[in-house]
Design brief:
The chain has helices spanning 37-55, 59-75, 77-88, 92-113, 151-162, 176-188, 203-212, 225-237, 260-272, 289-304, 324-340, 373-376, 392-400, 415-424, 463-466, and strands spanning 4-6, 9-11, 15-21, 24-34, 119-122, 128-136, 139-143, 166-170, 196-198, 218-222, 241-245, 250-254, 282-288, 343-346, 363-368, 383-389, 404-405, 407-411, 429-432, 448-449, 452-453, 467-475. It is of the alpha/beta class.
């Protein structure tokens, strides 16, 4: 039994989460305790009690803890990556890669502990000095999704601790194993009791208790748009700051002048790797008329070579969908696409393997329009639609015609179009001749429109959310 961490103690919950392997549903990874309402309140109280001491802790203490965590994560990358792939379903190579990224994030913020700085500026009044400094916010509530079960917790927890905040952390119920491991590593790295609290369980219990508590000073959330709105409304009521990363319907444009091989590589990666379960995935492939037919033929050929199978097997390119509920959603959208008049050019059927799992062959639609539901709504699975357009201008207009604005990509050999697209794509992140998914750990992550709200995550820009600016005057 894997327990919750509250005030420095591992505590059994009121119920258990059975963590199953989506590649083999007969494989029980472990049983993880669900926290109750009262236990969540205890975690919040523990974080509040621990905050004054941690907020004024030595930067060397914080640096050492985050550095120790980074080192252990990296040394255990194969073990932790295997656990991640086993519980979430992404391939082993992707699981290990995500684990390495988590280590890099903790290492980066270990360094940021030593780079905390303010500024002294002259006042307009003689004999007066002005200091501008950053201070921690307080108790930070963290709610993370299932699709990146170690990287997203890392890029929220690491800056929160770096800047002197205390944390109450609720991971997604589908992937408690990776979350428990990262908290265990940080706990053993030397965090004082109450600084980091793990409360696993249902959003309606744990998440709602966090949202209704006046003692949670900030909320950072990654997940669905609908839940993000609930986080926002509850946070406004308590006058707390909040940060939201939500959905995407990301476009990837392919122009007539594109290198076809590069375009197909980027499109397949964007749309189908990690089983399409990435908020930065491209599910709208917007292709100009001159290259359309060649692009579709090349996509079908490449997709036919992709092996769908057990995430832990070395020859697997696409792992299973995370669970039965997500699989049903994917199948429902495939049927919606057919009924809307799009042509299913490849895939979309269930796949049987040697173990019971949620296997779905990636689906590619053609003859889609940007008004179809499969082009407007986030599917969050290995389903992509090709939209034919006349030229670059129509491609750009189509790409921007979405309520979302997380990531956007283009395949072109034209410096003119690449430069124009980087400036005019209505997205927080823009990729040229690269997949729309994949952002370095030291640069800001986030979007615009309905995809994101609040300051960016990752890199030095994380300070904008996890700290408050103080301006202090003094006579010389």
């Amino acid at each position: 039994m894997f327990k919750n961490l509250i005030a420095g103690e591992w505590i059994n919950g009121s119920d258990v989460i059975r963590n199953l392997n989506p590649s083999d549903t007969n494989d029980l990874i472990g049983e993880y305790s669900r926290a109750s309402v009262d236990q969540t309140k205890q975690a919040i109280a523990a974080a509040k009690t621990a905050f004054p001491r941690w907020a004024r802790s030595s930067i060397l203490e914080r640096h050492a803890i985050l550095r120790n965590a980074a080192n252990e994560i990296l040394s255990r990358k194969d073990e932790l990556g295997r656990l991640l792939s086993r519980e979430e379903g992404k391939t082993l190579a992707e699981g290990v890669g995500e684990t390495v990224r988590a280590s890099q994030i903790f290492d980066f913020f270990a360094g940021e502990c030593l780079r905390l700085a303010g500024e002294t500026v002259p006042s307009t009044r003689p004999g007066v000095s002005v200091d501008v400094t950053r201070e921690p916010v307080g108790v930070v509530g963290i709610i993370t999704p299932w699709n990146f079960p170690i990287a997203i917790p890392a890029w929220k927890i690491a800056p929160a601790l770096c800047y002197g905040n205390t944390v109450v952390f609720k991971p997604a119920e589908l992937v408690p194993g990776s979350a428990w491991s990262i908290v265990d590593i940080l706990h053993r790295a030397g965090l004082p009791e109450g600084v980091l609290n793990l409360v696993m369980g249902k959003g309606s219990v744990v998440g709602q208790t966090m949202l209704t508590s006046a003692d949670v000073n900030a909320m950072t959330f990654t997940g669905s748009t609908a839940t993000g709105k609930q986080v926002a409304l509850a946070s406004i009521e308590h006058n707390r700051r909040f940060q939201l990363e939500m959905g995407g319907k990301n476009p990837f444009i392919v122009l007539d002048d594109a290198d076809l091989s590069i375009a197909v590589d980027a499109a397949v990666n964007s749309a189908f790797f990690s089983t399409g379960q990435r908020c930065t995935a491209s599910s709208r492939l917007i292709v100009t008329a001159g290259i359309h037919d060649r692009f579709v033929a090349a996509m079908v050929e490449r997709m036919s070579s992709l092996m769908v199978g057990d995430a832990l097997k070395p020859d697997t390119h696409i792992g299973p969908v995370v669970d039965q509920g997500q699989l049903k959603q994917d199948i429902d959208y495939i049927n919606i696409g057919k009924n809307e008049g799009a042509k299913l050019a490849f895939g979309g059927e269930l796949v049987e393997r040697g173990t019971p799992g949620f296997y779905l062959r990636p689906a590619l639609f053609t003859e889609a329009t940007n008004q179809m539901r499969i082009s407007r709504e986030e599917i969050f699975g290995p389903v992509a639609s090709v939209i034919r357009v006349k030229d670059y201008d129509e491609a750009l207009a189509t790409a921007n015609d979405t309520p979302f604005g997380l990531s956007s990509g283009i395949a072109t050999t034209s410096l003119k179009y690449a430069t124009h697209f980087k400036r005019n794509a209505e997205a927080g992140m823009v990729m040229v001749n690269l997949p729309t998914a994949g952002v370095d750990f030291h640069v800001p992550f986030g979007g615009r429109k309905a995809s994101s709200f609040g300051p960016r995550e990752q890199g030095k820009y994380a300070a904008e959310f996890f700290t408050m600016v103080k301006t202090a005057y003094a006579t010389a």
